[in-house]
Structure formats: structure tokens, C-alpha cells
Amino acid sequence: xxxxxxxxxxxxxxxxxxxxxxxxxxxxxxxAGIAEMIAELGHTVEDLGNVQxxxxxxxxxxxxxxxxxxxxxxxxxxxxxxxxxxxGEGFPIFLGGDHSxxxxxxxxxxxxxxxxxxxxxxxxxxAHTDYHTPLTSGSGHLHGTPLGYxxxxxxxxxxxxxxxxxxxxNVCLIxxxxxxxxxxxxxxxxxxxxxxxxxxxxxxxxxxLRLFLEKVAKANGQLHVSLDVDFLDPEIAPxxxxxxxxxxxxxxxxLVMEILHDSNLVTSLDLVELNPFLDxxxxxxxxxxxxxASLLGRRVFERPTRTF
Length: 308
Known about the structure:
By secondary structure, the protein is of the alpha/beta class.
């Protein structure tokens, strides 16, 4: 990856689920030294502060289980605008915030990709598919719906019309290990590339990633990476409200980021679902910053020793 103009965009979104705490995520990343790390690696960095949601009137959800619909739509509008502007000026890093922030961040970068006539690709590093819609979600938690929205599934009538959808075949999910029956059925009918932890155990994490990156490179695509804390094993990253055992190890996660760096294809990044209230002396925030460093060019053997 060539030197980047990194733009930090705080997205303290906490409306995508009922358990609170993700609104503290952006400040936790800042406290963990994300800006300083980026500068040390030779990139320029500008902190654009925190986005504020667009004020929406009351919007009635067709599914009465849906939580905080109006607020989440307000965040989607604001982050779409912020993302489209930022990706035209540099390398946006969205500091979350729960995963519903990707409803807006990815919509924004995809809109810019359409303007410059390049296809948008998405790498989803997550324990979950997040492929529900407001109509199919049993929990009503909208942090489980971004890929449904971004790929154009029906059921998002109250949301902003997408400037550009992301074709299903341009999406790759790695790290899956908690998928409900309805999502699994929908996923099997889709054209998304999905790799669960069994596939990673059997074949390694590098092979499916490299296959996807070859597809991105061949198409001259823009690549958005959405990194959810629960992609990682909770033994090394406890600060998330949706812990699922058996996630990516420290080395697997860093290998993914190093391969992404080597590809020079990544054009934007989400860091999502960090809940500092659940952290242990900031170690999850620090790990997420370290993974971002690997994406931006630091090798693991260059990683500084930490004391907690």
C-alpha cells in the first residue's frame, strides 16, 4: 500500500442493538493511539471528528421488533454522505460504533466508486453474515442487516435509496460461525463468497482471501474492509457484545491484514462493534489498532511490546 492520506471518521453509532456501549468506541481508538500509529508508519492522518446523525422524524417499522429504526436511518444518511466525500479525498477509516454504521459507510464509498466507474468490492470479517433485513430480523437489531441493504435485498423501504448497490458476487465473508437458519438459507441462494471457520481450519485463511483479492484486482475494483471485533476469538478480543468462541487467532488476523497491505487494493476501512465497557484495560482497542497498523504496513515482528 502506497502512503495514504488517512481520514479518521468517528461513528459513535449505538442504535443497531439494545446493548449499549459502542458509542464509546471512537474515543477508545483515539486513546489507543490510532492517529499516532498511522503517522509513525509514514502516512498522513487527519481526524475529522465524530459524525452526527441526521435528525429524523418518527418512522414506524413494519416489524415491531425493530429497534431504533429512525436513529439508524439518520446515521445511515450522515455516514453515506461522509463516506462518499472522504473516499474521494483519501483513505477513510470509520471508527465505530456498532456494525449498523456500515449501512452508511459502505453505501457512501460505493456511490463514489460508481461515479469514477469502478466496481465496489467488500470484505466482511465477521462471525455473522449481517444479511438480514428489517422484515426478517428476529431480534430487530439492525446491526445484523448491512449486507442485506447494501446488496439490494427488499425490506428497506424506509431507508435512503442506495446510490449504488454492491453486487453479491463482489462480497466476501470470512470468519463465519454464528449464522441462523434463515440467514443460512438466504446466503446459500446468494452469490456472495462465504467462508466459515471450518473452511479456515481445513484450508487456512490465506487461500480464500487471495482468491477474492485476485478477483478485485482483475476488475480494477475498490475494496472496502469491514472488520468486526467478533471476527476475532473472544479470548484475545473480549470487548464485544456478540462474542462467539472459535474466532480468528492473533496470527490469523494479522496475516489477513498483511496480505491486504501487500495487495494494495484496500480503499476504505470500518472498525466496528468495539464496546469499551466490556474491555480489559483497553486490550481489544489496542489489538484493533495493531491490526490497522498491519493493514497500513507494519509487520508483526515490528510490533511494539505492550504492558497493561
